[in-house]
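anyone seen this seq b4? input:
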Amino acid sequence: MDGVDKGRRIVALLAILALVVVVAILSFSDRTAKPMQLNGDMLGQDNTETSVEYRQRASESLENAAVGEEAYSLVTFTQPLSPSEASNLLKGVGRVNAMVMLSAPAMDLPEPIAGETREDVFNRQIKLVDAQLSGIGNVRAPGELNGVVVWDIPQKVRVLSESSLVYSVETLPPDAAWGSFGIRPVDTSGTNF
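predicted toks r here
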């Protein structure tokens, strides 16, 4: 029996040693040792882009969008708009998925329910943000929108890009799925209109 127990101990020690060696080797792999690159689509201004460069890239994305295929687009306003102004601007759009305020992460939005307008939805979200900020000194929600993410065909979104209230419109490929792409804010502070 002693020979069998001794054999099991040796096998167990060799297995543990092999496991330690494998973990050590994998710890030097680029997949685990370095930060992973972002995967997937992104809307918004890249850290290395100027506002002008971003605007050009956004314009090209809308220009090259697949005709007749619904896609997500980031619509950035020239200056912050009130919920009423944003609602009026977006009347012809099929779906508004999110709103952007300052440099905060985009906030998901529901569609208006019966008897509501998009303005009501925007105001409700602003009140929710304001309530979440209560108790943090005198911090308040800005009360205005800097942009929105919409879902519609390029022909309808192009109409928005022609408005003086819109700084840029960037469109993703039609196969981009909600929740699988990132949204970065766009800096319009250094631009003159």
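The first strand starts at residue 42 and ends at 43. The mean pLDDT is 86. kinda curious what u guys think
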